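Re: folding output
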Amino acid sequence: MEVIVISSDAPAAVKATAGTYVLVATGTNDGAVINAAIDLAAALQARNDTSPAGAAQLGTVRLTGGRFNITSPILMRSGVRLTGAGWLTE
């Protein structure tokens, strides 16, 4: 499962794609939004009844390009990968 976090300075058309697995950062405490995305991407067996027992449970949080204002710790969870858009993500 992939959860996308869109920066607050992204174009309005990009922000309009927000939904269950696409979150938009506020520009003030983006750490809270990123942590919420990590929790959502932590695809635990209990959250995914369609997965067979013992299946790999992995999730990805992808940050779009843009600036994120991190004022609180990012709390990683097992089986989740956090990625950015390279030098486009600050």
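--- second protein (sequence, then structure) ---
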Amino acid sequence: RPPFAKDRLDVNYEVLRHTFDDLPPGDYAIKLFHDLNVDAVLNTNLFGVPAEAYGISQNVKAMFGLPTFANAKFRVVAGKTVRVSIKVKQHFDKFL
């Protein structure tokens, strides 16, 4: 699916908060990554393992590629605030 919304943030803290206002009701998923080399791509090593830290809504583990939308989605309901907490997985390039 093409992104409904995307944003670029400067990372200066261990905890980062961001708000998307006025999203229409529906199902959404979030993927994020720390773009270390500022090329707008989640870089991977020779084995396809992310070389930059990343996170996915529902904290779904990525196994052999990105998880499905169905596994990462959450619901936005009109008039309700939704908080999504994503744990960022560190890149593994230094271990290979």
